[in-house]
Specification:
The chain is an alpha/beta fold. Helix 3 crosses helix 4. The longest helix has 18 residues.
Length: 155
């Protein structure tokens, strides 16, 4: 379902008696020709199947004779496969301070290692307080120490 401005919009499916076109290009195992909609409906009903418009923008619109329940099931199955193959990358952030202790830096490095192994992206931020900003070289030392610990898994 598409969402636009807070409302749910579903693609309208033209099936059987809801088809408004006078002529259709029918695609089937037996037929590949232009037919009147009424004839195509009779043919589909005689086979116990449904008439479904696949592409309404072409001239004449393309329709297919098929079992709509089976078609809908297969479409849902394809969507689930696509979602299953999709990989979501999360962004994680670790905050360090200038005067962080050795144990704390080891613990945060351990967490970063876990995030990177799981395939997440990690942002390291260094926080300065007050006049610490005037000494960026201390911050550089903290970052260098941190990166030395995680250099085997990080870039």
């Amino acid at each position: 379902m598409n969402q636009k401005r807070g409302r749910n919009f579903k693609k309208q499916v033209m099936i059987n008696n809801f088809i408004k076109f006078p002529e259709l290009l029918i695609i089937n195992e037996e037929h590949n020709n232009v037919m009147k909609t009424s004839e195509a409906l009779e043919l589909a009903k005689s086979q116990g199947l449904d008439l479904l418009v696949i592409n309404e923008n072409s001239n004449p619109p393309v329709a297919k004779i098929l079992d709509y329940g089976k078609y809908k099931y297969e479409q849902n199955k394809k969507q689930k496969e696509i979602k299953k193959k999709q990989h979501v990358t999360n962004n994680k952030e670790i905050r360090l301070r200038n005067g962080i202790g050795d144990h704390d830096i080891q613990f945060k490095a351990k967490k970063v290692r876990e995030f990177l192994i799981d395939g997440d992206r990690v942002k390291i931020s260094l926080k300065f307080r007050g006049r610490e900003v005037t000494r960026p070289d201390y911050g550089r030392e903290t970052l260098d120490k941190f990166f030395a610990i995680i250099e085997d898994v990080g870039k």
